[in-house]
Amino acid sequence: MIGLILGTSEGKKIVSLLNEFTDDLFISTATAYGGQLLEKYKYKILNSKPLDVNGMIHAINTNNIHILIDASHPYAVEVTKNAIEASRVCRIQYVRYERPSIIDKYINSKNIIIVNSYKDLYKYLINIRGNILNTTGSRNIEKILDMNLPNRIIHRVLPSSNVIEKLYKLGIRTEDIIAIKGPVSYELNYAFIKEYKVVAVLMKDSGIQGGTEEKINAILDCGAYAFVIARKNIQYDTQHDKVFSCERTLVEYINKKFRT
């Protein structure tokens, strides 16, 4: 059986390509919503709850998984570390789909500031005068709120009842919430920035698939600043791990392994 940890839109494409030759798949997503997005695909087992390293090891051993594909989000660092560790413990092949970064093409722009942590981000934001649009996701909102900035901060989040309830419990006002499923177009990014009179946008380097290019172009055209939380570097074992940035190339590799 092939195991998959999914957390990106490309995960569906990987499953679709795998389905051309097998449905012997164990799929794990972090949420029930992620599982719902896979309803039209073929697989044997679907887990829609987060797995820690012990949960991954149990799933591998219980389902006789011999290859583990990690297509989690590039910022889900703990998930990737757990997947690598579980693969080591179970002595199976670890295969990573890593969404390509595009931030380097903007690195010379004075309006694009790359920071390595939220602590570093704070050092910049204390000098910002004006409204801030936070698009780093609901899991990071406490880090922003803990900065106690005087600015109005608008949070763009998924339109999930759990997420909205969390924001209300944190004291965030309805008028400071944009609930929409991304990625969104250049035009909509531009409109949000203009409508809310945003001078700085907090974001991740989520690649082309995550709408990073449209977002940055809108920010630059509005004359705002983009503060990009940098990705963490993952140390892969180059002798044993396989890392791909193309879904089809990854599946071609799996197909060869599957047939041997």
UniProtKB/TrEMBL annotation:
It comes from the Bacteria. The keyword Zinc-finger does not apply. InterPro entries: Precorrin-6x_reduct. Keywords: Cobalamin biosynthesis, Oxidoreductase. Pfam families: CbiJ (PF02571). GO terms for molecular function: precorrin-6A reductase activity. GO terms for biological process: cobalamin biosynthetic process. The keyword Oxidoreductase applies. Pathway: Cofactor biosynthesis; adenosylcobalamin biosynthesis. This is Cobalt-precorrin-6x reductase. It comes from Clostridium tepidiprofundi DSM 19306. The lineage of its organism: Bacteria, Bacillati, Bacillota, Clostridia, Eubacteriales.
